[in-house]
UniProtKB/TrEMBL annotation:
Lineage of the organism: Eukaryota, Metazoa, Ecdysozoa, Arthropoda, Hexapoda
Superkingdom of the organism of origin: Eukaryota
Domain PI3K-RBD, first and last residues per copy: 232-322
Protein name, UniProt field: phosphatidylinositol 3-kinase
Segments forming domain PIK helical: 564-741
Family: Belongs to the PI3/PI4-kinase family.
Any one of the GO BP annotations: phosphatidylinositol-mediated signaling
EC number: 2.7.1.137
Native source species: Drosophila guanche
Length: 1168
């Protein structure tokens, strides 16, 4: 943007300058002779002002700078803090040349500024940065030769930059020196450099494919749902010429490719413009409004953009772009990214060790010595005693009996156990590879209450009881990352129960194994791991385990050959046995008899039922090394299983390395788009890995380094949890490795982080006053030159395909919600394209919204796979930090509440007026055929969201968080309560229906008709039933995806109990009850509430329930008298509803609702 500035000499204007020159005098060092015949100007050094707190608060408007010139002089100037480094450099060089030693000064392009940092002198390589962003210490800048910059472009600069992007919670230097971390860095650096070598040899087309990967459907054929709209397989595409903005509309066929479309466009363009020298190979097709390209030999219909546009009955718009221009941009972009040099590798020292003893050779039982616990925060006034519980776990399964020891009386916060040796009833040879030691520190307090004696009423006795409170916990593996048994004395740094996990269980085997980084604050456990007399003990390697299993198999075969042949067991019996557990989640309590029977037929499952691997794994006795060896041997021969089953194996219930390795082997075939769909869960599954390096980490890192779109979301998923103490080291190291492995992606991500910081500052402004006042303050903040430059040329964090050229302050505002989110509008970098609208939230946890929206995408894909398109409008949402993130704005949509207000229906009787929504759709969809199309869109989307919100248990549904687009598509927003966590007040649930289906909705579905038996509504019911049965068929996938998210720490998804709602809705635990119902009635039977207009139930509109809930919420403020008056109003509305529905048997008042907490069934239906 143009900037007008002036330069003053002693506060007088100097024409042609950009900066305020405070004094043009200079100082020559005493040993330097000028030789120019001019007198040396004396300069009073006491006039040089060093401001230590220059950048402590908000950046000042003007900054006093001290510039050190290469010819040994100093120059002081006053510069606006919004000035870029390049502008300062040009002005400094210009002024330096005007002095007597100016002949020594070269051109500005030969120089570079350097500044003082905390540890070093660093170059300012990015000269587009502003002074307020660079913030040089003491305002000192040193002008030096650009050639000197290469000595600073080292791993130090890269590490400093990356550490700043990861966040202040990650300390690169603090993580050095740990063997596992050092080996992880070394191994991942090798991986990154091998991929970087491949990228350096890319052609421009390959680089384009990496930065903007193609979005392709699985099949090259036109989807059946689209073919129904285009029976001739022909469709229209609008092509715009980038050079002159001329447009051409062409008809293409199903098998036409991007190249054939370019040829047709050039022919049409040449005829109109009389040009014949253009070739199809000189151009490429770009999607209008975003950085997405269509190229290659794929049919146009296979591109997801084309399918999405045709599904929306829109005409795809593409831009004809010059290949030369695009190639030049990509090559320049990659040359800039190669500017940083990597430090040379350090050779690993070769250390010779004595061959370790195999763990499987140790027959003694596991022992542990407990020395002491210190820094224990307990109730010193009420604690009766303090002690420690210790257990051994494999996944969620306890391997042996736990040990509990009370501490002798200690002093202050330290307790000594006199080197207490604890014995566990499991042999060392049977310890699984991923065994975890779980320790809990507890206190026992006395609870006393007065109790009258039965003999003498005047004589009171005290009834004393004891309460056990768990204070802190810690987990650690028994074997390290190199398979070696931990030995010797160690200190374990514990977590408090509020720090990391929300659960009622004593032990937390699924919790982190990372030590608490707040070592000065946490309790410490001092233990010694016994070495069993061996210098080094190691778990047997994979080949040893497989050979052991093979020898057992041969021995077993020989034994069977010596015995009479047994009749072959029919496969039917096995299928029936497994069928009892098919569809159930893995936590289901399988009886030992069935467990043993299934395990005995493991080879039959391998041959005939390989998809039932999760059930077989549930039958393994992990504390028996023979079983472990056998399952490792089987997994080597096991065929690949489906993606759905493979994801299940990455859950916390399967910690065994061979199992997880097999799961990753199956996921290797996953396409990038599908991996992106499940990326949220895959990142969370990293938390279930026992060590930093794992097959899952390598898979995700490789995909992120080979596909920048995956890398974008990989970065943000990791960084959003960097404020979680237990994940700071693990996720910080992954971010460090990724950023160092793709330096060209650093700049776009840094730009997004800068935007994030500015929006955080804007959100603080938004909370300082009234709505109109803060709107003006926000817009002024965004217009400020010190801020405006940050928003230029950025990728949209919600969708990196959209590039923004700047922010539009006049359209930005502060929204009405409690946390004052910001409505921010960005200019699209593509000319004549729609602006980009986002909502920035600071103070709300968006992780649950992100999870719910992702599950809606999974459901939508499952439905489309079964030939059903429910026109779901699933907007983007991303969590970027703790309680901070962005939400995509869906344009041309209104909430139900706003539609009712617009139509004057927002009154006490509005819930009973059915025409408001229908009237609104009719107004925006003329003529009649367009209205019918909108109603169809509404019916499909309403069915999809009814089923989806029911299955997911989405609560707190009302007219403010259900929206409708002008084209008829309905969608839900704000998923603050899921999995059946319905709001209650005074024990009364505010919501008594499984999903929202109001009068307005039914009226639209029936095309303005009240007939409950209308064919349109019957069709709607059928859609709901089909949608539900599809989700039920894939119930294991949905359950697994939620199960993988338990470690996220979401308040409504923190334990296995929270999954019970899914099990009930998907009917995975009660097959007999559901199987008695015909398929066409199953959905209505399961829901327990059905649909409005159905015969199974009667429910009240959501507005009545909401009014009743709000009345209960306001009871403390209203007082009893006013509460009763308001209650009568709600009660009368309820009575009018009863009369309108002719349901006279159910004249329940609001008072009776409070007492009986039910209003769903009539008496007759309840008896049935």
């Amino acid at each position: 943007m143009n900037r007008t500035a002036s330069v003053s000499h002693n506060h007088h204007h100097h024409s042609g300058g950009m900066l305020d020159n405070r004094q043009s005098a200079y100082v020559e060092h005493t040993h330097t002779g000028s030789g120019c015949g001019l007198p040396v100007t004396e300069y009073d050094l006491s006039d040089m002002r060093f401001s230590i707190n220059l950048w402590k608060n908000d950046p000042p408007d003007y900054v006093d700078l001290i510039c050190m010139i290469p010819n040994g002089t100093l120059l002081m100037m006053k510069a606006p803090s919004s000035t870029t480094i390049r502008e300062i450099k040009v002005e400094v060089v210009k002024l330096a040349k005007q002095n007597c030693l100016g002949y020594m000064i070269k051109d500005a392009c030969d120089y570079q500024f350097y500044g003082i940092s905390v540890f070093n002198i660093e170059p300012y390589t990015d000269e587009t940065k502003r002074l307020c962003e660079v913030q040089p210490y003491f305002g000192i800048l040193s002008l030096g030769d650009r050639t000197d910059a290469t000595s600073f472009s080292s791993d130090y600069e890269l590490t400093k930059m990356v550490s700043g992007m990861i966040g202040s919670s990650f300390d690169h230097h603090r993580t050095q020196g740990t063997p596992e971390i050092d080996d992880f860095r070394r191994s991942m650096t090798d991986l990154c450099e091998s991929i970087e070598v491949e990228r350096s040899q890319f052609t421009w087309q390959q680089r384009l494919l990496y930065e903007h990967p193609l979005r392709l459907a699985g099949s090259a054929d036109m989807p059946e749902l689209i073919r129904q709209r285009h029976p001739t397989s022909a469709f229209l595409i609008v092509v715009k010429n980038e050079n002159d903005q001329s447009t051409f509309t062409l008809s293409v066929m199903e098998k036409d490719t991007p190249l054939s479309l370019i040829e047709s466009t050039l022919q049409k363009m040449n005829r109109s413009q009389m040009k014949m020298n253009d070739r199809a190979g000189d151009y490429i097709l770009k999607v209008s409004g975003r950085d997405e390209y269509l190229f290659g030999d794929h049919p146009l219909i296979q591109f997801l953009y084309i399918q999405e546009a045709l599904s929306d009955s829109a005409v795809p718009n593409v831009v004809l772009q010059s290949v030369i221009r695009l190639e030049s941009y990509i090559n320049h972009h990659n040359e800039q990214s190669m500017g940083l040099k990597r430090a040379p590798k350090k050779e690993r020292p070769v250390v010779l060790h004595k061959a370790p003893t195999s763990l499987w050779d140790l027959g003694n039982y596991f022992q542990l010595t407990l020395h002491s616990i210190s820094n224990v925060n307990y109730d010193k006034t009420r604690a009766f005693r303090v002690g420690v519980d210790v257990g051994l776990y494999h996944g969620e399964h306890k391997l042996c009996s736990q040990r509990s020891i009370d501490a002798p009386n200690g002093s202050s916060d330290t307790f000594l156990f006199n080197d207490q040796i604890m014995d566990f009833d499991i042999q060392m040879r049977n310890l699984p590879r991923m065994t975890r030691l779980c320790i809990v520190i507890f206190e026992v307090t006395k609870l006393s209450r007065s109790k009258k004696s039965s003999n003498n009423k005047d004589n009171a006795q005290k009834d004393v009881s004891y309460n056990k409170n768990h204070l802190a916990w810690v987990n650690t593996t028994l074997l390290d990352y190199k398979d070696h048994l931990r030995t010797g004395r160690q200190v374990l740094y514990t977590w408090t129960y509020a720090d990391d996990i929300q659960s009622d269980e004593v032990f937390h085997p699924l919790g982190t194994i990372e030590p608490n980084p707040r070592k000065e604050e946490c309790a410490l456990v001092h233990v010694t791991f016994h070495s069993s007399g061996a210098e080094s003990v190691r778990y047997p390697c994979e080949n040893t385990v497989l050979q052991y299993a093979a020898d057992r198999a041969v021995a077993s075969l020989r034994e069977k050959q010596q015995q009479p042949a047994e009749p072959e067991k029919p496969l039917k019996d096995l299928k029936e046995l497994i069928a009892n557990y098919t569809g159930l989640d893995k936590i289901y309590e399988m009886v030992d008899q069935d467990r043993n029977a299934i395990w005995e037929r493991r080879n039959d499952i391998l041959r005939e039922l390989p998809e039932q691997l999760p059930i077989l794994l549930h039958c393994v006795y992990w504390k028996e090394r023979d079983d472990v060896a056998d399952i490792w041997y089987l997994l080597k021969r096991w065929p690949l299983i489906s993606i759905e089953r493979s994801l299940e194996l990455l859950d916390y219930a399967y910690p065994d390395p061979a199992v997880r390795r097999f799961a990753i082997k199956c996921l290797q075939i996953l396409k990038d788009d599908d991996l992106l769909l499940y990326l949220l869960q895959l990142v969370q599954a990293i938390k279930h890995e026992s060590y930093l390096e794992s097959d899952l980490v390598v898979l995700l890192l490789e995909r992120a380094l080979r596909n920048q779109r995956i890398g974008h979301y990989f970065f943000w998923h990791l960084r959003s949890e960097m404020q979680t103490p237990s994940m700071q080291t693990r996720f910080g190291l992954l971010l460090e490795v990724y950023l160092k492995g793709c330096k060209h992606h650093v700049a776009p991500l840094r730009k997004q982080l800068q935007v994030l910081e500015k929006l955080k500052q804007g959100s603080v402004i938004a909370k300082k006053g009234s709505k109109e006042k803060v709107k003006t303050m926000l817009q002024d903040f965004l217009r400020d030159q010190r801020n405006a430059g940050v928003f230029q040329n950025i990728q949209n964090p919600l969708n990196p395909s959209f590039r923004c050229s700047g922010v539009t302050p006049d359209q930005c505002k502060v929204m009405d919600s409690k946390m004052r989110p910001l409505w921010v509008v960005f200019e699209n970098a593509d000319l004549n394209s729609n602006d980009v609208y986002i909502i920035f939230k600071n103070g709300d946890d968006l992780r649950q919204d992100m999870l719910t929206l992702q599950m809606l995408r999974v459901m939508d894909k499952l439905w489309k796979r079964d030939g059903m398109d429910f026109r779901m409008n699933i907007y983007n949402c991303i969590s970027m930090e703790q309680r901070l993130g962005m939400i995509e704005v869906v344009r041309h949509a209104e909430t139900i509440a706003n539609i009712q207000k617009e139509k004057g229906m927002f009154s006490a009787t509005s819930p009973f007026k059915k025409g408001s929504l229908y009237s609104w759709l009719k107004e925006h969809n003329k003529p009649a055929d367009k209205l019918n199309k909108a109603i169809n869109e509404f019916t499909l989307s309403c069915a999809g969201y009814c089923v989806a919100t029911y299955v997911l248990g989405v609560a707190d549904r009302h007219s403010d968080n259900i929206m409708v687009k002008r084209n008829g598509q309905l969608f839900h927003i704000d998923f603050g309560h899921i999995l059946g966590h319905f709001k209650e007040k005074f024990g009364v649930r505010r919501e008594r229906v499984p999903f929202v289906l109001t009068h307005d909705f039914v009226y639209v579905i029936n095309k303005g008709c009240n007939d409950r038996e209308a064919k349109e509504f019957c069709h709607f019911q059928e859609l709901c039933e089909r949608a539900f049965l599809t989700l039920r068929k894939h119930g294991c996938l949905i359950l697994s995806l939620f199960s993988m998210m338990i470690s996220t720490g979401l308040p409504e998804l923190s334990s296995e109990k929270d999954l019970n709602y899914l099990r009930e809705t998907l009917v995975s635990s009660n097959r007999t009850a559901i199987d008695r119902k015909p398929p066409s009635l199953q959905f209505l039977y399961i829901s327990g509430a059905g649909l409005y207009g159905g015969k199974s139930t009667r429910t009240f509109p959501g507005e009545i329930q909401r009014s009743f809930g709000e009345l209960l919420e306001n009871f403390p403020q209203l007082g009893l008298s006013q509460f009763l008056q308001e209650q009568q109003t709600v009660d009368s509305r309820h009575s009018r509803y009863i009369k309108s529905t002719k349901c006279n048997k159910q004249r329940t008042s609001t008072r009776s609702l409070c007492v009986y907490k039910t209003l769903s069934l009539t008496q007759k239906e309840a008896k049935q």
